[in-house]
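Weekly structure sync, notes
Attendees: PL (lead), two postdocs, one rotation student
Agenda item 3: pending single-chain targets
PL asked that the sequence for the first pending target be pasted directly into the notes so everyone works from the same version. It is reproduced below exactly as submitted, 319 residues in total.
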Amino acid sequence: MAIAKAERLMNLALCLLGTRRPLSKRELRGSIEAYLEAGNDDAFNRMFERDKDDLRELGLVIATVENLDGETGYLARRDSNRLPPITLDAEEAAALGLAAKVWQQARLAGAASGALQKLRAAGMPEAEDAYDAAQHSALEPRIPVHEAAFEPLMLACRDHRPVVFDYRKSNAVHPETRQVEPWTLECWRGHWYLAGWDRDRGAERVFRLSRIIGKVRSRAGRYTAPVPDVVTVRETVESWAGENATRTALIRLRSDAGYPLRARAIAVRELGEGWDELEIPYGHGLDAWLVEFGPDVVVLEPADLRADVVDRLRAVAKG
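Predicted structure, written out during the meeting:
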């Protein structure tokens, strides 16, 4: 079975790489023997979608194109799947080794390790000293990835594939279905965020991965909105996550809690009886962040922030 699947994937890859125009599912089915043997259209469609996803997982860039008749076609352009000669010095090799260690907690760990092995086989310097120093250091970099949505969204960002998922806002009881054209993933204050174009709302939006409910489903077709440059996307993530403050807020905080809030505080005053008063930057998303500290935080002002936090806490209490 493994050999049959490997042969089928190889034949599909050769078809996609060898064509100068997009090939439809119908044409691919007629060109690959294993697809001809599929019992019915549903069986073929399931097999083809799995094979296409497997090839993308292996690194093949497959473009989805719609022809003049409105039929969806596929091809893998050679210029998009050809790497230039790899020339890395010892410091660059050490940086790649360190980057591979960052992903140890994610399912990307195996792919990162395999990529390093292939680069070394192609002549990349070992940079043993720098890499070993990182291995045995008391402080090692980590990017925690616990959300199941991370991997499918990362692949969708890479391949420019629209996605659909159920998303529960922090002040909502029930999730809503979102149709999104994903741009990029950003890690901010230990949480992962997806920035993209929300088709239903016709605007850019940022979604926290921990609030995605269930599976992320891919959709065929092109993006309907232009993808901005990386800098703009990152600024959008930071803005929606609360990084770009436009004013300040006054809160009460328990003396032994809320250290991330203390790190951002502009001023701190001891109130006694186990409470402190903090002045902190106030930007979009601060209400959602304050809710995470539960009873350890009381918002004093401004009134609109206090009302937002109370509304979110009530929504959480309702379940």
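Discussion points:
- The CA atoms of residues 116 and 223 lie 32 Å apart.
- The mean pLDDT is 80.
Action: rotation student to compare against the earlier draft before next sync.
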